[in-house]
Inverse folding.
């Protein structure tokens, strides 16, 4: 992409990013006491992270079946209360085993 056509994209993205961060500070002058709004704002980072991560999970391997196997394994291991490293290793192992199994089917 030529640099001259990249500049408008950069300016628009910078403006949007700046507005999203500045507008709440200018419109809201006092502490938010509404329980619903506070809980909504608290969970936004988790929702955004999930929305960005879930599609990447489905396309991270050679097939959707092995990706789903890894995802299900991660959910099950995490549900038992294990740590992040254990969940990651379990999900990767499940996806790897599913890929191996798909090679022979």
């Amino acid at each position: 992409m030529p640099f001259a056509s990249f500049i408008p994209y950069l300016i628009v993205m910078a403006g949007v990013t700046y507005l999203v961060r500045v507008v709440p500070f200018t419109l809201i002058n006092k502490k938010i006491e509404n329980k619903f709004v506070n809980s909504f704002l608290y969970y936004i980072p988790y929702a955004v992270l999930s929305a960005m991560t879930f599609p990447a999970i489905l396309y991270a391997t050679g097939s959707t079946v092995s990706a789903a196997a890894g995802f299900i394994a991660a959910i099950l291991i995490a549900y038992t209360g294990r740590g992040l490293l254990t969940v990651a290793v379990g999900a990767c192992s499940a996806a790897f085993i599913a890929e191996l199994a798909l090679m022979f089917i």
Residues 31 and 38 are 10 Å apart (CA to CA). The helical segments are 3-27, 35-58, 64-79, 84-104.
